[in-house]
Write a structure and sequence with these properties.
This protein is mainly beta and about 300 residues long. It is built from one helix and 27 strands. The chain is about 0% helix and about 50% strand. The N terminus and C terminus are likely disordered.
C-alpha cells in the first residue's frame, strides 16, 4: 500500500493549488459569509452545489450555480435542515430536519419550492439520506431497536428494509453508482471506519482499518474510488482511496480542517468544506489531472 501526500502551494486569497509535475490543481472558494457552511452535494446534472448553512442553531439549505451566480435559498418551513441528497433528475432533494417538538426525519421537496412531503414517521431520528441512482430508493441512518443502523426505504416513504444489524452506530450511507452497494460509517471496531454492504443486504465488509476516524465517504462516478474525511494525518482532511484499499491519497495536507467531500458528476472535481479562510465554507478542488497520474497502479 502506498500513501501519497499532495503538497499545497498558496496561490491567492480564494484560490490555492498543489504541485503536480509542473502543473497546478486549483481550489476555489464557493461560499463567502460568516455562517457555518458544510456538507456540499453536487446535483447529478452538474449545474448546482447544494449545502447546509447553519446560523446560530438553525440549519438551512442553499444551492449555488456551479458556473457562478447568487446562492438560492430552498424554503422548507422546517428548522434544522441538513444533509441534502439529490434526485437523479436534479429536480428534487431529500433532507433531514427537526420538526417542532420532534426528532429528525426525512422530507422531500422540489428545488423550485412548494409542498414538503414527509418520508419517515419513526420516533427515533432518521437522518443522512442518500438517493439511489435509479431514483426508487433512499438509504438513511435510522434509530430503531435501540441502535442506529442503515435502512433503505422507498422514495415515497415507509419502513423499508434494515441493511445493517449491529449494536454499534452505523450512519452516513452513500450509494455506489451502479446501485449495487452502499458505503457507510460504523463504530463497530471502536472508532469510525468505512464499511461496504450490498444494497440487497448481507454481511458488510470493512474497508478502512486506521485507528483514526474515517467518515463521509462518497463513490467516484466510475465507482473505482472513494473520497472521504479522515483524521489519520492528525486532523480532518479529505482523502481518496481505491475501493480495493491499494492506495490512499491525501488531497488537503494543510493545517486547516477539511471534510465532507463530494465528486462532481464527471469526476473532474471534488467539493468539500474547509475552515482555511477562518470560517467554515464550501470549496471545489480540480482533481481530474492529478488523480490518474498519481494513482496509476504498477
Amino acid at each position: 500500500m502506498r500513501i501519497y501526500l499532495v503538497f499545497l502551494i498558496i496561490l491567492g486569497i480564494h484560490s490555492t493549488g498543489f504541485a503536480q509535475e509542473g502543473s497546478f490543481c486549483s481550489i476555489n472558494q464557493i461560499t463567502f459569509d460568516t455562517n457555518y457552511n458544510y456538507a456540499p452535494r453536487w446535483s447529478p446534472d452538474g449545474k448546482y452545489i447544494a449545502y447546509t448553512t447553519v446560523t446560530g442553531n438553525t440549519g438551512r439549505i442553499f444551492m449555488r450555480p456551479v458556473d457562478g451566480g447568487d446562492e438560492i435559498y430552498i424554503e422548507t418551513g422546517y428548522a434544522g435542515d441538513h444533509h441534502v441528497s439529490w434526485s437523479p433528475d436534479s429536480k428534487q432533494i431529500i433532507f433531514d430536519a427537526n420538526p417542532a417538538k420532534g426528532l429528525e426525519n426525512l422530507f422531500l421537496i422540489s428545488i423550485e419550492g412548494g409542498k414538503v412531503n414527509r418520508l419517515t414517521e419513526h420516533k427515533g431520528p432518521n437522518v443522512h439520506p442518500s438517493w439511489s441512482p435509479d431514483g426508487k430508493r433512499v438509504a438513511c441512518a435510522s434509530y430503531r431497536n435501540e441502535t442506529t443502523d442503515v435502512y433503505v426505504i422507498p422514495n415515497t416513504g415507509g419502513d423499508g428494509i434494515r441493511l445493517t444489524h449491529d449494536p454499534a452506530t452505523d450512519y452516513h450511507p452513500s450509494w455506489s453508482p451502479d446501485g449495487q452497494y452502499i458505503v457507510f460509517t460504523s463504530f463497530r471496531t471502536g472508532n469510525a471506519d468505512l464499511w461496504l454492504v450490498s444494497s440487497a443486504g448481507g454481511k458488510p465488509r470493512q474497508l478502512t482499518y486506521h485507528l483514526a476516524n474515517d467518515d463521509h465517504a462518497r463513490f467516484s462516478p466510475d465507482g473505482s474510488m472513494l473520497a472521504f474525511t479522515s483524521e489519520r494525518s492528525g486532523h480532518r482532511q479529505v482523502w481518496v482511496m481505491y475501493l480495493d484499499g491499494s492506495e490512499f491519497i491525501c488531497l488537503t495536507p494543510d493545517s486547516s480542517s477539511n471534510a465532507w467531500p463530494d465528486w462532481s458528476p464527471d469526476g473532474a472535481k471534488v467539493a468539500f468544506c474547509s475552515d482555511r479562510s477562518g470560517n467554515l465554507d464550501v470549496y471545489v478542488m480540480d482533481v481530474l489531472e492529478f488523480l490518474p497520474s498519481r494513482t496509476k497502479k504498477e
